[in-house]
Structure formats: C-alpha cells, structure tokens
Specification:
Two copies of one chain form a homodimer.
Chain A: H1 3-10, H2 14-23, E1 30-33, E2 36-38, H3 41-56, H4 61-72, H5 78-89, H6 99-116, H7 125-139, H8 143-146, H9 149-167, H10 173-207
Antiparallel strand pairs in A: 1-2
Helix pairs in contact in A: 3-10, 4-5, 5-10, 6-7
The first copy, chain A, binds a DNA duplex (30 and 30 nucleotides) through α2.
Chain lengths: 209, 209
DNA sequence: CGCTTATGGATACTGCTACTATCCATCACA
DNA sequence: TGTGATGGATAGTAGCAGTATCCATAAGCG
C-alpha cells in the first residue's frame, strides 16, 4: 500500500499522515527504494486508531503518542501497560482548591475507596483529579451532587467489570491491551454522549414548557 | 471587592481575570470612577465556576462563554437553557466513518433509543457523536464493546435520574440551571476519574504479575 | 501633600498545538 | 519520456489561552 492509498482509505490528507510519521505516531513504512515506502494492514489499523483518538475522543497528539508507545511495549506486564496509558491520559494538575476543601475531599475519597475495596496507588493522577473535582463541586455549592459519589462509584464499578470481562475474551495479549485502551478512551466518549442524550430526554419530560 | 482581592481569593492572576473580562466570560464590575471597579460575591462565584470548567473539565474558553450565556438567559425555558449548554459542549463533527459503518451504527443507536424510550431531537449533536463512536468502535474491531451499549445506557439512565432528582431540590430556577450544567460537566470529570480508578483496581486484581 | 502601589483599558506579544504548504530529487507507470 | 506520486526536509499558518507592557488615573499611607 502506498501513502496515497492509505490516505484515501482512511480519509486523512497525505500531509497529515506525513506529520504523524514525523511525530512517530505511525511507524515508518518499509522502504523499497529511497523514496518509495509501502504500508500494510497494521498501518491502516493504527491510522484509524489515531484518528478515532484525536478526532472523536479529542486526545492531544502528544498523548496519543504516549498511549501507542504503551501499547507497543509488550515487554512489560499488561497492568503496567494500562497504567502507562492511564498516566498519559490524565494531566498532572496543579492544586486549585483551597487546603481545607482538599483535605475534606481527600478524606471523603479515601473513605469511598476503602469502602468499595478499590486498591489504587496513592500517586495515581486520576486520584488527584477526583479529589480536586470533589473539592470544586463543594466550593461551587453542589454538595448534593457530591452526595451521589457512592452511587456513581457503584455504577462505574459495575460497567467497568462488564467491560473488562468483554475484553478478556481476546486471544492475544496485544489485542487485549489495545481493547482495554480503546475501551477506556472511546468508552468515555460513548458514556459522555449517552449522558447528554439521557439528560436531554429526562429534562424534556420534566421541564418541557 | 477589587480585582486584586478577586485574584487572591481564587488564585487566578490579575491579567487572566482581565482577559476573562475582555472575552465576556466575567461581567464587568461596577465602575465607581473611570478606573476603579468593584466586584461582588457573584463575580467570585462566576470566576470559580470558570476556573473549574477550564481547568478541571478542560472546556475551551469560547465554549465556557456560550455555556455561561445559556445560564444567564433566564428568559428562555429551562429545557432550552440546558439544550444550549449541551450544544455548546458538543462540537459539530465531520463524518469520519464510512457510509455503511455509519448506517449500521445509526440503526443500532436509534433502536436503542426507541427501546429505552429516550426522546431526543434527531439533530442533537450528541447523537452524531454517539453514532460516530459506535461506528469507530466497530471499524476498530471492538464489536464486543459495542454489545454493551445497552448496559451502558441503562447505567447512565439510572444515575442521570438520580442527578436530576438531586438537583431538583434547588429553590430557584437560576440555581437549578446552574446545578444541571455543573453536574453535567464536572460530573463527567468525576465519572471519568472514577472509571480510571476502577480500571486500575480491577486490572491490578486480574493481571498483576 | 507627596509617594508608592493598584487599577482599568488598550494593544502587543508569547508559546503551544495540529496541521498545511512548498520544495526537490527521485521513482513508477503509461 | 513525460506526468504524476512519493519521501524527506523546512517553513508557514491559524487558533487558543493567556502574558506583558504601557498609560493615565485613583487609593492608601505617612
């Protein structure tokens, strides 16, 4: 396959593909002569994955790169691969909440985690995000939303288990890792649009003029 | 309150506050003389909300502006306010999936909506996102994830109802609208970090070396 | 009263991201 | 043999989210 065919197949302009090659998102094609490379099925898949992450899930290109590197590092254990992808996904945030607010939020969140028996590293960036979010909700006067944290956590736990079961049917480790990552990222896009639709429908029922 | 106090209270540099004022995110303070304005509690709340949306939920400034405008337009019915906020939140996407993939996805999604009795406008941008996402998952060979669409939808429906109940306790319409919007946006950040934590914990249980 | 600091308003500049555009020396193919 | 595509390099662009600078005025303090 030549670059033009790749471009037509996925609907991405050739210069953009060249850009992804430059940035190392897409592995180099096999050179048959100094200015002729051929691309295979794997490139096609990869390119589609890149576009889904960039366009649909709005993941920044630099993070897509890290995620793909995590997927490609099949020398490390699966759990570590997933951890790397997670870390690429969550920006390290500066602490914006006040100290008291954060202390309260931290207490509530760690309590939740123990109650649900979730064993997470204390350094997980998602933990920091969760704490900051809870603190922000409190500061914004949305305590009643925070009181649903447990309900949220339960629902999330339920479908995360489903997902992981679904994904565990994959025969090879590579495919498994890829599925987990795609499921994590595109699954979020999925949930987010489902939420908007559910809200629209419910809000129409309740508050239609 | 002067701009410096606002800045210290929320931890946002003065030039940034000036920028938000310029962009119309934050209403002008009351001028007591040509170069002296005073800001009140409402400005403080607004600024905190802006920072939560921008920093925590990563909403682009231009969209935050639209969302705040929707909140401030209390002449229109609540459902319409929410709709505007939703529209500000979801970018109109170009269709990236192939026609057949999209047709199949559309069928599946409309089927889901009828089955669940969700009444949504066919032009809702979230609908387009959902369809594109399902199509992308299929194209990426993740059909088994797509088969959970119903489970996702059910879980989402459940906690969306909880949320709306929680939020309905608010006395005034303004507060209600604000709560719905904050709940929608920061709720997503919340769910997303909970998902990552749940995954980490479950993946550690299953695939720890 | 004078001096330092803060303020409102305007304009310009910066760093970053995700591409696009251009150029050129090959190379494939009709 | 010429027309179009290709690989590789370099430069340029538009948009975003602030920052920086300047100025005339105003506030607070000694």
């Amino acid at each position: 396959m030549r670059i033009g065919e790749l471009s037509r197949a996925v609907g991405v302009p050739v210069p953009t593909i060249k850009y992804y090659l430059r940035e190392g998102l897409l592995p180099q094609g096999e050179l048959s002569s100094p200015n002729q490379a051929s691309y295979c099925e794997a490139h096609l898949r990869r390119l589609r994955l890149i576009r889904a992450l960039v366009e649909l899930a709005q993941v920044p290109v630099a993070q897509v790169k890290e995620i793909l590197e995590a997927l490609d590092s099949d020398a490390v254990p699966l759990h570590e691969q997933i951890g790397r992808a997670h870390r690429a996904l969550t920006p390290t945030r500066k602490q914006a909440a006040s100290d008291e607010a954060r202390a309260a939020a931290t207490a509530q969140v760690t309590d939740l985690l123990t109650r649900r028996g979730w064993a997470v590293e204390p350094t997980a960036p998602a933990l920091a995000t969760l704490i900051e979010t809870v603190a922000a909700l409190r500061t914004l006067g949305q305590d009643n939303l925070v009181s649903f944290l447990d309900a949220y956590a339960e629902a999330v736990e339920r479908f995360t288990e489903l997902e992981i079961d679904a994904v565990s049917t994959h025969p090879t480790r590579d495919q498994l890792a890829e599925s987990v990552v795609i499921g994590t990222i595109l699954g979020e896009t999925l949930i987010s649009s489902l939420r908007l639709l559910a809200q629209e429908s419910i809000s129409a029922q309740r508050w239609r003029t």
